[in-house]
Every structure is written in C-alpha cells, then in structure tokens.
C-alpha cells in the first residue's frame, strides 16, 4: 500500500461492482443458536472476491488472572436491530466488501464462538481493515452483557460493549 493513502478512499475501478449496500449486507443477527465461522463464510463467498477474512471470538478459560468456566450473554431487545445497523454501517463505509456477523446470547461454554464475522473483498488489505472495523463497531455499539462464571464459584456481570 502506498504511503499516505487512506485505504477507505481507495477502490480499484477495475474491480467488479459488488452491488448496493443491501446486496452487500449478507447477514446480521444476534442469536441464541450456535454459530460457526463456516456459516458466516457461506454468507459472503463470492467469485468476485479474492480475499475473505473472518473473526471468531471464542469464550476463553480466563479473565484477568481468574479461571472462567462458562459465560452467559444477555442481549438487550434492541441488540438485533443495532447489529443490523452496525453491519450496514460497515457496508456503507467500505463500498467494495460483503459483510456478515452474528453474536450469540445465552449460555456458552469455554471454546464456544460468541462473535463471528466474515468480510469478503476483491483485495486482502480491504478485507482485513473492514473486518477489524466491524468487530470494533460490534463491541462498541451492540448492547450485550456477559455474566462470567469463575472457577472459584463466583460470577460477575461485564459489559461486552465499549
């Protein structure tokens, strides 16, 4: 990438048009059902795209030095609507990407996928940038909280946003 260029402003006119925002928003949900990276990949696979970047936010077994045994995510009633708005925002911000995202709610075990995203684009730099931006926007805007259950028998609520 050339020094000084704003990647968001760079779109190769020789690349095929991927459609309007509505065509490029492939999936946006907050769900109590398990989700896998493969699910989101299927949503954005496209022969016009040479790059597909995913993010799989997994429940880990620790937090700030304490053992975590499971989580419970609670989603505000507006979470699905806000998730759709976040995915749409990314599609508007990056006119050359296809976007999909899903955040789980309910009881999750260590190793379960909590947030899964996929972004496809004609070129890798754009796919990486848009995927990172998508994850940051979900974390900042979608109202979901987690109740962490620790190995010592205690638990605490933590805002998953912000």
TrEMBL record:
Classification via Pfam families: MoaE
Region (Disordered): 1-25
Record InterPro entries: MoaE_sf (IPR036563), Mopterin_biosynth_MoaE (IPR003448)
Residues annotated as signal peptide: none
Superkingdom, natural source: Bacteria
SUPFAM superfamilies, per the entry: Molybdopterin synthase subunit MoaE
Protein name per the record: Molybdenum cofactor biosynthesis protein MoaE
Species, as recorded: Dermabacter jinjuensis
């Amino acid at each position: 990438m050339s020094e000084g260029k704003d990647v968001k402003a760079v779109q190769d006119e020789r690349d095929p048009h991927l459609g309007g925002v509505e065509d490029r928003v492939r999936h946006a949900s907050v769900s109590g059902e398990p989700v896998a990276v493969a699910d989101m990949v299927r949503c954005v696979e496209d022969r016009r795209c040479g790059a597909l970047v995913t993010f799989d936010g997994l429940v880990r077994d620790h937090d700030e030095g304490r053992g975590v045994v499971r989580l419970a995510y609670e989603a505000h009633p507006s979470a699905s609507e806000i998730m759709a708005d976040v995915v749409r925002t990314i599609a508007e911000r990056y006119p050359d990407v296809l976007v999909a995202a899903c955040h789980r709610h309910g009881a999750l075990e260590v190793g379960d996928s909590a947030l899964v995203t996929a972004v496809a684009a004609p070129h890798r730099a754009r796919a990486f940038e848009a995927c990172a931006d998508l994850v940051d926007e979900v974390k900042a805007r979608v109202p979901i909280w987690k109740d962490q259950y620790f190995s010592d028998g205690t638990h605490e609520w933590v805002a998953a946003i912000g």
